[in-house]
Specification:
With about 140 residues, the protein is an alpha/beta fold. The chain contains 4 helices and 7 strands. The chain is about 25% helix and about 30% strand. A 7-stranded mixed sheet has the order 1-7-6-2-5-4-3, with helices on one face.
Amino acid sequence: MEKTIEYTNLAELPSVAKQIIDFGKGENVWIFEGEMGAGKTTTITAICKELGVQSHIQSPTFSLVNEYETSSDEIIYHFDFYRIKQEIEAMDMGVEEYLYSGNLCMIEWASKIENLLPLQYLKVKIDVNFEEKRTITLSVIK
């Protein structure tokens, strides 16, 4: 199953985030693909806000993972693997424990840990089109 969402400005992101959340229900691992500057972190921020995260949300580029708590005491993990060179770096920080924790894990640059991903996850592909329009393609990978 696949869904496509298009938007042209940031004011539409809360609606986009709700659609992603609805589509991704039941999946604990969500990977975000797109070129540098496509809006991966911005989209994750919108999703976290829709899920009730009150704290500051930012890319964990240097720490590799950020932990957020929602208003209903759920934990969300946000990963950014852009800077790792080998999968062993993710293994050393215990990524598998996070991925199989049952908590929502949102991952930027998941291609860097491709062999560590679970067999099933939500793929959120963000493409930048003509005049800065974004197309998000959602699919469950099994």
